[in-house]
Amino acid sequence: MNIDINTLCSLSRLALSDEERDLLFGDLEKIVAFAKTVEGARGFHNIDDCDGERKNAFRPDVPAAGESVDYTKSAEESNGEYFCVPRAVE
Amino acid sequence: MKKILERSVIEKARDLRAGEYSAVELTAAYLDNIEECDEKIGAYLFCDRKLSLDMAKRADDMLKGGDAPLLCGIPFGVKDNICTAGIPTTAASKMLEGYIPPYSATAYERLERAGAVLLGKTNMDEFGMGSSTENSAYKITKNPNDLRRTPGGSSGGSAAAVSANTAAFALGSDTGGSVRCPAAYCGCVGLKPTYGAVSRYGLIAFSPSLEQIGPLTRTVRDNALVFEAISGKDPKDPTTKDRIGDTLAGLESGVKGVRIGIARELADSNASAETKEAIFSAARALEKEGATIVDISLPSLELATAAYYIISSAEASSCLARYDGVRFGHRTKKECQTVEELFRESRSEGFGKEVKRRILLGTFVLSEGSYDDYYKNATRVRGLVKRDYDCAFKSCDVILSPVCPDKAPFIGEEKDPVDVYLMDKFCVGANLAGIPALSVPCKKSAEGLPVGMQLTAPFGGENILYRVARAYEVIR
Q1: How distant, in Å, are the alpha carbons of B130, B199, B254 from that of B142?
Q2: ipTM confidence score
C-alpha cells in the first residue's frame, strides 16, 4: 500500500495543516489496511449459486447453507461453537 | 398536556379527531417540551415556534374538513440533510451554514401535504458520516436515556427527539445504519426502507446508491403509518418504485408459520454477550408465538463493512466535490491567488475531520493503481452480499440480528476509526443489498439502556418486517 497524502490532498482539493495531515494520514493508513480485506472477495469468485461449494470456499468446518435445522438442535450438535444460542450458552 | 406526548401517533390522530385537543395545542405542548428539554439533549438544530404553530393552524382547518390524512396535526422532526423549502438545511456542516433550500424533499413535502406539523430540523453527524452525532459541526446530541452517552448516528437528533418526546415521529436517513443504530440506542423503532421505496429527491447526497430516508417512531404501527405516507413513486427520483401495498393491513397477523433466520456467523461476531443473549431471547419469544427459527449463513458479511466504507467513501468524494465555495457551499474569506487555492481553502474550512477523512479515502480507492484492488473488489463483495441474502431468503422470511454490537458508547470515548466503522457491521449489509431492515427495541441492558434488534427482509418486504416486529412488540 502506497499512500501519498500530498497527492491525495491535491486530488481531493483539500489544504490541510501539518497537524491535521499527520492525524488523518495515520487514520487513513489503518482504514486502508482494513479496506484491503475486500480482497477476500476473490475466494468467492467461482461460486455463483446458493447450493454451490460455498462451505469449502469460506469456512469448511461450518455446515453448508440450506441445511436449515432447528437452531437449538444445531447448538447441541455443534457444541455451541458456531451456534451460540441460549441453550448452548447455558 | 405532557402526558399526551407519550401517546402513539395513532392515538394522537384519534384524539385530534375526537376533539380532545387541537393540533395547535398539541404542537404547543411539543414546543414547550423542546424549550424545557432540548438544552440538555441537543436534538434540534433549528426550531421556529411561529412556523410550527402556523402549520398547526392549517392542520386544524384540514381536520375540521373531515377527511384529513391520519398524520394531519401530528408534530414531527426532520433530519437536517433533508431539504425543507424556506427553512435552513445544513446537513450539520459549516459548509452549508445559512443555506435555505428553495425546494423541499419529496418525503417532507408528502408529510407537509398530509398536514403533519414540522417542529424543527434535527442534529446529525456532518453529511451523515458517523455513528454518534458527535461529528456535527454545531453541537453534540446526548442520549435521553443516559446523558453521558451518544444517541448513535448519524440520525441521532431524530432518534433523541422521538425518545425524549420532543417529536411524535421523525425522519432520518440511512446509508449504513444511520436510522437503525440511533433507534437502537435510544429505544425507538427505525426503518431503512427498500432502496427506491422512498424518494431521495431533496436528500443531500452522501452515497446515492446506498441511502434511503426512513422514519423513527415510538411504536411499530406508527412507523408503518409514516412509511406509508412517505413512500411511493416520485417522478423526481427515477429509482423510486410504486408503493408495495398496505403495510398496515397484515400488522396484527402474528408470526405463526413465519420462518426467522439467525446467521450462524453471529456467534463469532463482535457483538457483546449481552447483545447476543438479547437476540436469542427475542428468538425464543417469537418461537413461542409460533415462528420457526432457521439456521442460515451470510459468509460474505465478513467483508461487507470494508466494502461499504470503500463504496460509500468513493461516492462521497464524488458527491461532495460540488462544494467548492464557487458553485456551492462556504467560501473562504482568505485572499486567494488562484481559483484552485480558493477551492482548497473553502473546502478545508467548510468540512469537518470525518468528512475530510472519507473524501481522502474515496479519492484513494478511485485513484489509478487502487481502483482494481479496492473499488472493484468492493463492488464484487456487494454482489456477494446480495447473493448471500437471496440464498438465505430461500429458507427464511426474515433475518433476526443485532443492530449494534453493544450498547450506546460514552460521549468523547476515544476509539480507533476502524473499531468505530465495525460498529456498523450488522447494518451495512441491508444497504449494500438494497433490502429493508427494521430496528426494534428488544430489551434493556443491565444499566437500563435500550438494546435493539434488527429484522431484515427481502426486497419490498416491509410488510413482513412490520408484522414480525409488531408481534414482538406485543409480547416484549
Answers
A1: 15, 29, 35
A2: 0.88
